[in-house]
Amino acid sequence: MEPNTFGFIGLGLIGGSLAKTLKRVRPGCRILAYTRTKATTQQALAEQVIDQICDSPADAAFSSCDCIFLCAPVGSNIDALRALKDIASENCILTDVGSVKTDIHLAAAELGLSGRFIGGHPMTGSEKSGFANATAHLFENSYYIITPSEGCDPKRVDAYRALAAELGALPIVLDYRQHDFVTAAVSHLPHLIAAALVNTVHDLDSKEEVMKMIAAGGFKDITRIASSSPEMWEHICISNRDNISEVMSTFIGLLEKSRDEMRAGDGQAIYRTFERSRDYRDSFSSSSLGTIKKIYTIYCDIVDESGAIATIATTLAVNGISIKNIGIVHNREFEDGVLRIEFYEEEPSLRAAEILRQHRYQVWVR
Question: To 5 degrees, how large is the angle CA 152–CA 155–CA 156?
């Protein structure tokens, strides 16, 4: 049951990365795709990421697929599922990559597709969206949650699990209802918090935008995901509103508790709050990339003189190390080093730190 012809509805960050990864791990596979914006499929075809452009989700060409990925927003995926009902073959695995599962599972059951539909959610991503930001290594060491429909053939589930592992991901099988509650806490709530933090600073900032100007790297890190697609998060929040609302109530209660402790000057209670969060946070595994991608960063002290940054960039380039971003840290309240250097992966960041230390720079790794 190993699929070798794949269909895609949508080629954004996740869909595009899936297609690119499939072409990398299975060079001989065939990929068909439909996107709302035709320029996207034309670009994918030009880059040889896909082999054929389809005109709509109801295109008859999708009947040749062994597996079809629905990679549009949640509501659009359900519409596509309806369109594919009488087109996809009986042996085709129908799946999605959405962050919310209940609605599409209920739709699959209503359409009589439970035996063929397997929900999928790669727990990875970026604050950037679109095919232009898709990569062929997005799924490496990230959890890939699989939510089989009731009555789905176990052989199909096994084939899907094997495919997720082949992509470099770590497959986990969950009930779709459990999935939606878990992701409400670890994925959906953080995005809402990030958006609220950014909007708080926006609303409280002065006309001179002093808060914006001196926002520290830590603030930028925890609010980075606020740059995600508004359309996607509108769909997610509406589709998973009951679970998110329940989790938000717990979060708001903890915020109110902290506010009351501060107003009362209860230092011991404040200490316990930070101690409990520190201990639990330090117990987290760093083996999976997760939905909020880890940034591999080093900080370096440099002398403020002409060419200082260029010297470091050249030193790393000569040693074959690619830099994702580099810049001066103007607010160092919670950070060491005046120069912040970001990398795409952990290994180059560690190698860069060692090389710079050999050149007598003082370096901190985060």
Answer: 60
Domain count, the chain: 3
Tokens 């950037």: give the residue: 128
CA distance 353 to 360: 11
Q: Is the CB of residue 23 less than 8 Å from the CB of residue 48?
A: yes
Among residues 143, 175, 207, the one where a domain terminates is: 175
Query: Residue 175 pLDDT > 90, yes or no?
Result: yes
In whole angstroms, give the CA distance from residue 25 to residue 31.
Answer: 13
Strands 143-148 and 117-122: antiparallel
What percentage of the chain's residues is helix, strand, coil (to nearest 5)? Answer: 50, 15, 35
* Count helices and strands in the chain by DSSP H and E runs: 14, 12
Task: Determine contact, residues 334/216, Cβ cutoff 8 Å.
Answer: yes
AA letter at 38? K
Cβ atoms of residues 313 and 326 within 8 Å: yes
CA dihedral over 228, 234, 236, 240, signed as positive or negative: positive
Tell whether 15 and 118 lie within a shared domain: yes
DSSP annotation of 293: P
Phi-psi region of 14 (alpha: psi -120 to 50; beta: other; left: phi over 0): alpha
200 belongs to a structural domain:
yes
State how far the Cα of 297 lies from the Cα of 312, in Å rounded to an integer: 15
> For 63-83, what is each residue's pLDDT tens digit?
999 999 999 987 889 999 999
What's the Cα-to-Cα distance from 2 to each of 6, 93, 155, 163, 345, rounded to whole Å? 11, 10, 10, 8, 31
Region at 141 (left for phi over 0; alpha for psi -120 to 50; beta for the rest): left
pTM tops 0.85, yes or no: no
Q: Which of 254, 282, 310 is the last residue of a domain?
A: 282
Any idea what the Cα angle at residue 254 is, between residues 250 and 260, rounded to 5°? 140
pLDDT at 216: 63
The string of DSSP codes covering 31-69 is: EEEE-SSHHHHHHHHHTTS-SEE-SSTT-GGGGG-SEEE
DSSP state of 156: H
**CATH number of the domain residue 228 falls in:** 1.10.3660.10
